[in-house]
Structures are given as structure tokens and as C-alpha cells.
Amino acid sequence: MLPFRSTLRSFAVLLAAAVPLLAGPAVSRAETKTSAKPVTVFAAASLKNVLDATGEAIKAQGEPKPVVALAASSALARQIEQGAPADVFISADEDWMTYLARKDLILPATRTIVASNTLVLIAPRDSPVSVDLTSGVDLAALLGQRRLAVANVTAVPAGKYAKAALETLGAWAAVSDQLAQTDNVRAALMLVSRAEAPLGIVYGSDAKADANVRVVAVFPAASHPPILYLAAVTTASASPGDAKSFISRLTSPEGRAVFAAHGFALPE
User: Fold this and answer.
1) How far apart are CA 185 and CA 187, in angstroms?
2) Residues 156, 212: one domain?
């Protein structure tokens, strides 16, 4: 039998050797959590405020804040087509989501409607202009020699909705040569916010986000296709599981509350 002191020394040596082994997994888990790769989200420009709030909520929970690229849905879809590293695509219309689906660039099973919106006519905050958006409305008379701010009417969803609404109301022909077309809806909003354009057509959520503009009138829902926001995981995503979880967050009760707080309508 070993002397008591020798036994005690042997136990101390074994304990010292075991401590790094016991600590190893805990350190590894911490490193994994802090070094996790954030989800990269390509989203319509009109979603800026919603995604800013969502990102901060995710960060507050100790998770990596998503990396968000904002632009017109058309521009983002083409970037994904060219190989841009997005995990999630959120489009402001169905057309650009379908465009990527036809090229097998999204996972069809993850395609989800996350919100809807309204289309509104806005003016600078102090403008006295008023108008009823009914058939035969004469927006050209309100513009005079100035221009109507609107997103690109051939590619950007907000611009396409605007053109459709103006055509339905019989106002397109009179204003089609008086458009100040922009790369995305937030740029159109900015023109009116700075009083560089007397009128603009944006989403209701955009108008809510800028105190320097006011809503003159809301376009009838029947005057344009339904404004739907769709999200999907890209086929090239390096983290499809995390990307699916991000979309699930947007459709959760908490996510829906964020959309509602920023002026978006919620899908049925």
C-alpha cells in the first residue's frame, strides 16, 4: 500500500490533468456560438425597418445578427442568379421569386408569404394637395411641370404596382412622361421627403417610416395586383437550416407584430 502522502500527490496530479479535459468541451461550445456564421438576407428595400428591428432582436438573444442587403427585388434576384452568396431572398412581388424558382435557385418548399402592403400617393408633409384616387383622376394637373416620384415601372415591384394602378384609374397616359423613376421604392420616398418631387407613389409602410411625408390617398386594392412579400431559402445557402429558422421567425407571432408595427398588412 502506498503511503498516504504519496497517494494524495498522485490524486492531485490526476486531477490537474483532468481539468483541461473537462473544460475543453465548454470552451469549444462557447467558441462555436460566438463564431457562428450569420444568415445573409437579400431583401426588398421597403423591408429596411422591419429587418433592422428583427436583427436587433436576434442580436439581443445572443445570436449572430443577420447580414442584410437591401435593394430592389429585381436587382437582388439578378445578383443571386449571378452567384451572390445569399441564404434568404425576400421579394416584394411574386414575379421575381418565380423568376428564381424557374432557374432552380430557391428551395420551393420554403417559399412563404410573410407580409402584404398597401399602395399610397404621398406628398411632402406640409403640402396642401388633396385628391380622390378614383377613375379618371387627373394627377397631371396636380403635378404641373414637376414629376411624379416612382420606382422603375418596368422592373421594380413598387413601380410595377404603381403603373398598374395608374392604368386602372385611367391616369397613366397623362403622367407617363412626367415620372421621376428610381432604382427602388425608398429612393422614390426620399425624393418626396426632400420636396424634390411634389407627389410620389410608395408603399404604406414607407410612408409610415418617414415623418417628412404624408399620405394623400390610398390606391384602391382592386387597382393593382395584391402586394405580397415572399421569402425563400436559396439553393446555394451554406446554412439552409438557419435560413429556414429565420423565415420562421418572420412568420411567428413576434415577427408578425414587428411587421404590423411598421405599417405592413399581414397575410391571411
Assistant:
1) 5
2) yes
Cβ atoms within 10 Å, residue 106: 28
| Beta strand pairing call for 88-91 and 40-44 | parallel
The amino acid at 159: G
The rounded distance, in Å, linking the Cα atoms of 38 and 26 is 21
The helix-helix angle for 94-102 and 73-81 (nearest 10°) equals: 10
Residue 139 sits in the same domain as residue 210: yes
State whether residue 152 is helix, strand or coil: coil
Whether residues 232 and 210 share a domain: the answer is no
Query: What are the tens digits of pLDDT across the range 201-252?
Result: 999 999 999 999 999 999 999 999 999 999 999 999 999 999 999 999 999 9
Q: How many CA within 13 A on the CB side of residue 186?
A: 13
More confident residue, 92 or 33: 92
What pLDDT, on the 0 to 100 scale, is given for residue 267? 76
Q: Hey, which residues does 230 pair with through a beta bridge?
A: 91, 113
pTM above 0.70? yes
The answer to whether 116 and 258 are in contact (CB under 8 A) is no
- Which of 124, 105, 257, 93 has its CA nearest to residue 192? 124
pLDDT tens sequence across 14-67: 334 443 333 333 333 333 334 478 999 999 999 999 999 999 999 999 999 999
Check: CB of residue 101 under 8 Å from CB of residue 108: yes
Q: Determine the length of the chain.
A: 268
Strand partners, 42: 69, 89
The residue range of the domain holding 164 is 119-223
